[in-house]
Amino acid sequence: xxxxxxxxxxxxxxxxxxxxxxxxxxxxxxxxxxxxxxxxxxxxxxxxxxxxxxxxxxxxxxxxxxxxxxxxxxxxxxxxxxxxxxxxxxxxxxxxxxxxxxxxxxxxxxxxxxxxxxxxxxxxxxxxxxxxxxxxxxxxxxxxxxxxxxxxxxxxxxxxxxxxxxxxxxx
Length: 171
What we know:
The protein is an alpha+beta fold. Helix content is 35%, strand content 23%.
C-alpha cells in the first residue's frame, strides 16, 4: 500500500521530470503535423492523470513509418516529454520529421548516412525528430536539454531536434 505522502512525492517527481506542473493541468494536448504524409492530428492524449487509449492509437498511426506504413507503439513518456518541451517554447503545431522507424527503414537510412544509429531509439517508438514553426531551433534544443527526459540531438543544418526517452545524453 502506498502512503499519500509517498504518492505525492512521486507524482511531483514525475511531473517535474517531464516539465509538467503537478496537478496544475488536467489535460495534455498535442497538435502534430507529419511532414512526410501531410496528416495532422490535434488530440488530448492525457487527462485527469491518465493516458487516453484512443488518442495514443491515433498518435501511433500518425507517427508510423511513412515508407512502409508500419505502426508501432510510441512510448507515452515521449509524448509527455514532447508536450513539456512544446509548452516551454510555445508554438502550436509540432512538425514531425521522424517518429517510428521500422528495422528495414532504419537499415536503409543507416547505410545512406553516418548520422543514423544502427540501433536507433526510433526502432522502439522512443524517439522523435521535430521542429516547431515560428520557434528558434536552438530554443527547442535548450528546452529539450533542460527537460532531462533522455537523449537530445541538435541538427541545425537539417532543421530539427531529436528527443528520445533513453538515457540522458546529448550530441
